[in-house]
Specification:
alpha+beta; OB fold (Dihydrolipoamide Acetyltransferase, E2P); Immunoglobulin-like; 6-stranded antiparallel sheet; about 15% helix; disordered N terminus; disordered C terminus; signal; Carboxypeptidase regulatory-like domain-containing protein; CarboxyPept-like_regulatory; carbohydrate binding
Length: about 525
């Protein structure tokens, strides 16, 4: 079973202001304000209900500011009013008062830009308290709370208004989330719910709907066509009966069917192979089914990721890059290799491509999910330098199978033990970093840990690599750092680092050079 990296863009867009794609383009909330059919709510929603917003906390920007100031010390509050940046410790002190203990523990090891982002999000979030009126889809309590305000893609609720709410349950918090890219909308006419009630009772006619697009990744996003194809003919057949519709300016179509049964749906796109333009489906009574089409022939690459001994490598993400003029594919959902190393990259237009794993990463570097790979950046087939990568040519609609992506020998693990000495013995606040110089500074940090009460630490790198190591601690009153100590392959443990005090306002070369330093909660 493959693990989806990002399962559904519509949900992901609710959590971020925009999504940065591989080719540098950003998706904003392109679906904001687009009306949604009742069928879409039943097909695409996890949880669908109507509700009245009874209150919003906090209600205004002034209340948010007051809330922040109430959590800050007088000195930090004065800095905030003067629009001066807060230190990590000042932000953490405020978050400690605001958040439940479990939520705070997930943030307390962060610093810099990552902590500032969480700080702003925690205090700018509003919570809409909603009385549930009518349930259409999914399990929901009588009263719910939905946060909003952290993103431009959030839905903006107002008090004493009634809404049709298309929501999903956040996997981490268990709470409900929604957004502007969902079907959530204010109820302005009670009759707009009639179709939902008919679908719920199965009294509505079965319906097939969808869109035609010139952007294959829209089939993954499924919600709207970013490059719609208008006036495309959609034909539905059952026996001798035929029904037709043409897509509108948004590339969308909808056909109500006379009865449940087996149907064939065909897009009038002769340039596509039959398997991509003709689909067969069974429709149940009162059921809505979405069928989307790409007007661009799509191919795929399927193969196995193998280690140096020919065994399958599981849990790696095989990435794909276009070789100019072929653009990078705009995949939102990505899948890791299976237990036997199998992988598949679908929805590819014709062109030239390169495959790789761990782009821009040294071996054994901790990745954003907290795990680490014994392989650094490696291109198909087994080349570390980009200029030795093998280029794959894909014809329109071609499915390339049985490709073998063989990796070089894995880098063995190197565990480094050491101890820290600090002037005031406040060792728990000290962080130790392992960096591999020569890489971009946002990629160079291989490992990082908080020091234990006894000053001991253990870092992990790859054997045969050259590193540098240093300790660092800074707050509003003190600033400690050690010298950057080089580590050559085979260096012996334990490593001894001595933190020296410096003025709190000193321009820190380490802080400036490694602005991306951060410790994930999973790293502790």
């Amino acid at each position: 079973m493959m693990r989806p990296m990002i399962a559904r863009f519509a949900r992901f867009a609710m959590l971020l202001p925009s999504v940065l794609l591989a080719n540098g383009m950003a998706w904003g909330c392109f679906c904001v304000g687009t009306p949604r059919r009742a069928c879409e709510g039943f097909v695409d929603s996890d949880i669908l209900f109507t509700g009245r917003v009874t209150r919003i906390e906090p209600r205004t920007d002034q209340e948010i500011t007051t809330r922040v100031l109430s959590m800050l010390s007088p000195a930090a509050g004065a800095k905030l009013r003067a629009r001066k940046p807060l230190t990590n410790e000042e932000m953490l002190d405020a978050l400690r008062k605001l958040l439940p203990a479990e939520a705070f523990r997930a943030l307390e090891a962060k610093s810099g830009a990552a902590l500032e982002l969480d700080f702003q999000g925690a205090f700018s979030t509003r919570a809409a308290h909603i009385q549930v009126l009518e349930r259409f889809h999914g399990d929901v309590a009588h009263e719910v709370e939905i946060p909003f305000g952290t993103s431009s893609c959030d839905f903006k609720f107002q008090e004493e208004r009634e809404y049709l709410i298309d929501a999903f349950r956040d996997q981490k918090s268990g709470g409900l989330r929604t957004g502007s890219c969902s079907g959530t909308a204010e109820i302005k006419d009670p009759h707009q719910l009639d179709m939902y009630r008919n679908l719920l009772s199965r009294s509505a006619p079965p319906t097939v709907f969808g869109f035609v697009t010139r952007q294959p990744s829209d089939l993954e996003l499924f919600y709207r066509a970013s490059k719609p194809v208008a006036q495309a003919t959609i034909t539905i057949r059952s026996g001798e009966q035929t029904w037709r519709a043409s897509t509108d300016a948004r590339g969308e179509y909808s056909l109500a069917l006379p009865a449940p049964g087996s149907y064939q749906v065909e897009a009038g796109l002769s340039e596509l192979p039959e398997r991509q333009r003709v689909l067969r489906l069974d429709v149940l009574p009162g059921q809505c089914q979405r069928v989307n089409f790409s007007a661009i022939p799509m191919g795929s690459i399927r193969g196995r990721l193998l280690d140096a001994d020919g065994h399958g490598v599981a849990g790696e993400l095989v990435e794909i890059r276009g070789v100019p003029p072929t653009l990078d594919p705009r995949h939102i959902s990505k899948e890791y290799t299976q237990a036997d190393g199998m992988f598949r990259i679908p929805r590819l237009i014709s062109g030239e491509y390169r495959l790789l794993i761990n782009p821009g990463l040294p071996p054994r570097k901790r990745r954003w999910m907290g795990d680490r790979s014994p392989y650094g950046e490696t291109f198909y087939s087994g080349a570390a330098p980009k200029d030795q990568a093998v280029t794959i040519h894909l014809d329109p609609g071609q499915d390339l199978d049985n490709l073998e992506f063989r990796l070089p020998p894995a880098a063995p693990e190197w565990r480094m033990h050491g101890e820290i000495q600090a002037p005031d013995d406040d060792l728990e606040a000290v962080k130790v970093w392992l960096v591999e110089e020569g890489w971009p500074e946002d990629k160079a940090v291989i490992d990082g840990v908080r020091v234990g009460v006894d000053g001991q630490f253990t870092l992990v790198g790859a054997q045969g690599r050259s590193y540098a190591i240093f300790g660092h601690y800074r707050d509003a009153n003190v600033h400690y750092h050690s010298a950057i100590t080089p580590l050559i392959p085979g260096a012996q443990s334990p490593i001894r680092l001595v933190l020296e005090a410096a003025p709190a306002n000193e321009d820190c070369e380490l802080c400036r050079k490694y602005q991306h330093l951060d410790i994930s909660p999973d790293w502790k």
